[in-house]
Amino acid sequence: MKKRKTLQDLTIKDNFMFGAVMSVEENCKGFLEMVLGFPIARVVVSKEKSMIYHPEYKGVRLDIYAEDAKHTHYNVEMQVRRKKELGKRSRYYHSQIVMEALESGEDYDTLPATFVIFVCDFDPFDKKRYCYTFRNICEEDPNVKLEDDSCTIFLSTKGENEDEVSQELVRFLKFVTADLKESEMDFGDGLVQKFQKTIRQIKTDREMGERYMIFEEMLREEKQEGREEGRLEATQEAVLELLKESGEIPCELQEKIRNLENLETLKALLKLAARADSLRAFEEKAEEYFNSEDKE
């Protein structure tokens, strides 16, 4: 069994620690200035949006949402494992920021500039670059820009083009990919030193320890719920597949089966479907199971 990490085991690439470090506004400001290459007057980190619910991750997940003095919005995410459709996920994050602005009564011409930044402990495009920056341009003429004020950046710890990016960025990414022991060494970088100092403070903070325990428990519950939901869906589909062998399944019956949320009841229906000679025979015997579910 994989050993559960304690707060003392975390490095900056662990989501909880990354969120805690970047929730310190000076740290977030320093990070954004390093990545973007221009000064930022002031950064406000939206702490209530650090724990969000969205379609891909049903439960708790740490992201960094920030806004600067010019109303520019930033979404930063630590990404340790390679996942599919990063491009579509970045589009989702941009749209969420825009939709929130529209809901607050903003006109299109006042929509904020948006930056979505992924810090990846892998190479998302396998081109050995430390940084991949995407903006909307015209395919027919790359000199024509859409100027929609959206930008997506992928940072990679696996880059090899040190002469094309700042040394500050390279040192930061080496810090990100370091293991626990290595992460405590001197990287010769002022920003990394700030992050290291913050991490040491977090690890000695009793309240942060309690928050981490709650965070871990929520993640465990989310994973358990995900496994249970997966078993429910698989059993529902198994019942329907068996019934299809007896003919076309009425929509009402399909809906009843898909609405069942009791795994034991579904298992009983699976056995019933395997034995039933016809859809009518199944429906007659299954009615008592549906009725018992309605009463609960």
Automatic annotation (TrEMBL):
This is Transposase/invertase (TIGR01784 family). It comes from Blautia caecimuris. InterPro entries: RpnA. Pfam families: PDDEXK_2. It comes from the Bacteria.
